[in-house]
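Project outcomes to date are best conveyed with an example. Our students and postdoctoral researchers have been running inverse folding experiments weekly, and each run begins with a structure described purely in tokens. The record below, which covers 308 residues, was selected by the lab manager from last quarter's runs and is presented without edits.
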């Protein structure tokens, strides 16, 4: 039986336009196609973990509007425990506006709505119900003080915390030593360490600084290159399967949800990162956030990529 996974984070409705290029400031780009999709980093990671076979509880705050009701129904269809998804009667659900170019690159603006009010009082009740062992998966689309509270409380209870520090933000550095694993991308790693990550060597240097700050396990995601894994015994690039990307939205979320599942099943970090690279590589070949997330058999049939 795998370890239960608790995802604490955001839920958004994504409004997506795909066009040939991303607009520059003051520029209007015509000819795009529009779609609306369920999203939010926390929700994306919860859906990923559930689709890939994890036992998932989602802890979140959504509005009492149509978007919030649709999100709650979707979580339940995905076999996610929603006992700790609260309905905020005073704020709207979160919304993200996403532009995507012909190469799959994106720019995103988020109005957090109810996500910004997922506060410590909401969290305390949920944390008190969690039994050891447990994996807690966090991101930074909810108030930073809530994230910091979860990390501190999880440490007291010996829960394993995976922090995906996205969108890029800072938190109290003394809390980093309480994490089991941190998973920044290149820009997030630069914010946390001051190192501009452009290749394996710079990723290794950024990881070493995070180790100095107290993080035992570091995974720096490098897009199409894969992910750099670093801890006391392993320092290696784990490549991603080669694919043609059409939309990178939620690829990082897919990676993190898959990582939680693999670790919950007892896989080694190397195996878990390889599994996550496979899942994320599938997601970028599809449009949308949660609509792009694969199911388990799609990931399992892909061959492992040789670790460098």
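After processing, the design step wrote out the following sequence:
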């Amino acid at each position: 039986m795998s370890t239960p996974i608790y995802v604490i984070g955001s839920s958004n409705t994504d409004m997506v336009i795909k066009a040939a290029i991303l607009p520059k400031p003051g520029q209007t780009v015509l000819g795009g196609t529009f779609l609306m999709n369920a999203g939010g980093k926390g929700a994306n990671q919860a859906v990923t973990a559930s689709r890939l076979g994890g036992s998932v509880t989602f802890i979140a705050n959504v509005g009492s509007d149509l978007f919030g009701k649709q999100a709650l129904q979707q979580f339940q269809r995905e076999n996610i425990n929603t006992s700790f998804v609260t309905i905020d009667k005073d704020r709207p659900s979160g919304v993200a506006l996403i532009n995507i170019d012909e190469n799959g690159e994106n720019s995103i603006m988020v109005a957090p709505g109810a996500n910004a009010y997922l506060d410590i009082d909401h969290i305390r009740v949920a944390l008190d119900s969690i039994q050891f062992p447990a994996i807690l998966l966090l991101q930074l689309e909810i108030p930073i003080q809530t994230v910091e509270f979860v990390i501190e409380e999880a440490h007291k209870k010996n829960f394993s915390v995976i922090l995906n520090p996205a969108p890029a933000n800072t938190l109290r550095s003394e809390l980093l030593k309480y994490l089991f694993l941190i998973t920044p991308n290149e820009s997030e790693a630069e914010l946390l360490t001051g190192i501009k990550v452009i290749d394996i060597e710079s990723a290794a240097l950024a990881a070493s600084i995070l180790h100095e700050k107290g993080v035992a396990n570091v995974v720096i995601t490098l897009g199409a290159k894969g992910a750099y894994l670093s801890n006391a015994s392993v320092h290696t690039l784990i490549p991603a399967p080669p694919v043609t990307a059409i939309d990178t939205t939620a690829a990082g979320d897919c990676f993190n949800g898959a990582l939680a599942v693999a670790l919950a099943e007892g896989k080694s970090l190397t195996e878990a990162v390889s599994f996550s690279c496979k899942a994320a590589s599938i997601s970028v070949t599809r449009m949308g956030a949660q609509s792009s997330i694969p199911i388990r058999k799609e990931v399992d049939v892909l061959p492992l990529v040789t670790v460098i």
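The chain is about 35% helix and 25% strand. Residues 81 and 190 are 35 Å apart (CA to CA). The training component of this project remains on track.
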